[in-house]
Amino acid sequence: MSTSTTADVQPPADRTAEWEALRAQYLRPRSERPPSSAGGVHHLALLSSDVARTIDFYQGVLEFPLTELFENRDYHGSTHFFFDIGNGNALAFFDFPGLDLGPYAEVLAGLHHLAISVTPERQAQLRTKLEAAGVPIIFEHQSSIYFSGPDGERLELLADPLGQMYGESIGWPSFSDPRSLTRGPGVTPEAPR
Ligand SMILES: [Fe+2]
Fold this sequence. Notes:
Helix content: 10-25%
Low-confidence stretches: 174-193
Order of helices and strands: HEHEEEEHEEEEE
Shape: globular
Oligomer: single chain
Bound molecules: fe (ii) ion
Strand content: 15-25%
CATH superfamily of the domain at 40-97 and 111-180: 2,3-Dihydroxybiphenyl 1,2-Dioxygenase, domain 1
Number of helices: 3
CATH topology of the domain at 40-97 and 111-180: 2,3-Dihydroxybiphenyl 1,2-Dioxygenase, domain 1
Number of strands: 10
Radius of gyration: 19 Å
Distance between the termini: 32 Å
Strand order of the largest sheet: 1-4-3-2
């Protein structure tokens, strides 16, 4: 995905050799890769300026059910709330009332975008709902559509199964849970759990 902040900078030199060296040093064939030590994304936490608006967007438009809401244990008066984004993963938010948070920005280690797998049929349905809600699709490429959430957070709905992108594997299956091999990655948003 292109970014507005890169438009006025000089393109880098040809880095093909550097990337090839990195692949040679670090990337191992699937058959030689050990299982990940991790069991999946438990939750990703973003910041919200308006709890109700965030719920209306994620639950009402994108159909990610709100699953929990309670006070942030580390910040009195702050809300911590969670949405089910399928596959056992959660998208969480905090609001930080009283803190003067700046607008969304590209910063090191910050959120560039969050990509969520959906079926092609669900992507088409949600695109219609986004457009009806006045949320513009700001970029699209192959099976991806990009748009922004209520606080400017960049989101991607990717009509590819987990572990695949644009018809190519990006590592699946490497999950240590053998159920993941038969569960049908990418078709899990409606699956019971
Ligand atoms: Fe992406």
